[in-house]
Design goal:
about 35% helix, Prot_kinase_dom, Protein kinase domain-containing protein, alpha+beta, ATP binding, protein serine/threonine kinase activity, Ser/Thr_Kinases-Pseudokinases, globular, Transferase(Phosphotransferase), domain 1
Length: about 170
């Protein structure tokens, strides 16, 4: 999985896609290196800075996603998500939204994802998966696409632009 992530990420260069700097090996472990996103994930940032327009950040993230989807070959992110310990839309020191976490990403041409392992198709965060991925019974049905990325991004947009639901007792 590390090699797949590096192979995708190292080719991407866009202001709203987190920059890949390189690899670092310390002892038996290898780490991917990127700029530190000191403002954290998009939702945490918006909770802290209530004066920031969430639509501005969503538009920036959308531009990053558009870049991935128009890159040649197309990059399907495969795991866009918002509110969680593993969110992958972050805000830079300068207040710019960036897309990160390319662990399930694929550079693809039409129909070439069928060679991936079962784990690839079963991975991801169900909360943000398109209905066709959740219902999938075969690898082909579970193939992540630009459309499933857009569905996940839409869910993130709803989470970011609406207040949390209170559950008072």
């Amino acid at each position: 999985q590390l090699q797949r992530e590096v192979n995708v990420w190292k080719n991407l260069h866009h202001p709203h896609v987190l920059q890949f700097i390189g690899l670092c090996t310390l002892g038996p472990s290898t780490y991917m290196v990127s700029p530190w996103m000191e403002n954290g994930d998009i939702l945490s940032y918006l909770k802290l800075y209530t004066e920031v327009n969430p639509l501005k950040l969503l538009l920036q993230a959308a531009k990053g996603l558009e870049y991935l989807h128009t890159f040649k070959p197309t990059v399907v992110h495969g795991d866009i998500k918002g509110v969680s310990a593993f969110a992958n839309i972050f805000v830079s020191k300068s207040g710019e939204a960036t897309i990160a976490d390319f662990g399930l990403s694929e550079m693809t041409t039409e129909g070439n994802l069928a060679n991936n392992s079962t784990e690839f198709y079963m991975a991801g965060s169900r909360r943000w998966q398109a209905p066709e991925l959740v219902r999938a019974e075969t690898k082909l049905q579970a193939q992540r696409t630009t459309a499933s990325d857009i569905f996940a991004f839409g869910l993130v947009a709803v989470e970011v632009s609406t207040p949390p639901i209170r559950h008072d007792s």
